Amino acid sequence: MTLLTLHNHTRVTEFIMQGLFDHPHHQGLFFGLFLCLYTAVVMGNFPIIVAIVIHPPLHTPMYFFIANLARVDILFSSSVVPKMLENLLQDKKTISLAGCIMQLFVLTSSLVMELLLLTVMSYDRYVAICHPLHYVKFMNKEICIRLAVSTWAVVTINSFVHLLLVLHLDFCGPNLIQHFFCEFPAILALSCSSTYINEIMMFMADIFLVMGNFLLTLVSYSFIIITILKIQSSKGKQKTFSTCFSHLLVVTLYYSTMFYTYIQLTSSNPLEKRKKVAIMYALVTPTLNPVIYSVRNKEVKLAMKRIFPFTTKS
Fold this sequence. Notes:
The chain crosses the membrane at residues 29-54, 101-123, 143-165, 207-229, 241-263, 278-296. By secondary structure, the chain is mainly alpha-helical. The chain has 10 helices and 5 strands. A hairpin with a 2-residue loop joins strand 1 and strand 2 (9-12). It starts with a strand and ends in a 7-residue tail after the last helix.
């Protein structure tokens, strides 16, 4: 049963997901594809975490935050993909109300955490390039721990506020989620009570967290670019730019996906396009992040060779 009668009100206890694709004969193909991508997410990010923890030369602020970013990527994908794979093998694609609430909490926490981590990493690159003589002072171990704790505090408070507001909503039918996982817009659309406060809080979160962090990152890289342009030698410019290239690439990938999502929400057929974009930030981006941070990074490659000698050959 997906409905429960309580105090003369019919309450939803289970949601039905629309699924990812409308063609059942393609389900097996996509199951294999997404399973491979999810495996790549875990097997790509986990070794980076291990390498950064075990290899002393990687015990620096930048790699400390890269390890946190890798953990967030695994957490985010793990909150969506296993249930998505399960539903691909079933005719009835369901998720319990409690499971949906938990997925909302993990998804929101992961997305905001990644946003804050990218901003902190932008600040790290700003200090390293624009104020190299003061880097040890401004990015010491104590400050890094405070920044990490602060980001987790913001993430937890933000997620709990949204979660508590959802728990106060009534769901009395319909119970069809127009997505392949639980997200706030899809869930709010199913509520039979007022969602005005929820929408206001989501709007405020978008303004302060999304736009605020985007502007801070933009300011950091504006100063970085100005500093690089002041360097006289071309080799010096290239060497300095290479220290932030990987992070800049990840930031560009993350924000372009996010802004594309918002643009598609206003299109004539936002549902199908939103699903495709969701695949990008649930699977593709977490798969590419470890590749971006390791392909051009000699220190990470060296750590991988020493810790996982079977993964690379000299």
